[in-house]
Amino acid sequence: MTPAVAAPQWRIGTDRRRAARTALAAGADLLHLDYGGAHRGTPLGEPAALREAAAIAGDIPVPVLAVNHVNDLGLAEERGTANPAALALLERAQDCALRLGAGVLHVPGFRRSTPATAGLRAGTADALRTLCERAASAGLVLAYESPLGHRDLLALARRVDHPALRLVLDTGNLRDAGEDPLAFAREAGAAGLLLPDLHVKDPAAGPAAPGSAFAELPALLARSAARSVLVENDYRGAGAARLPEDIRLCRAAAEPTRPEDPR
Question: Taking every annotated instance into account, which residue ranges of this chain make up the domain Xylose isomerase-like TIM barrel (predicted)?
Answer without folding.
Answer: 23-202
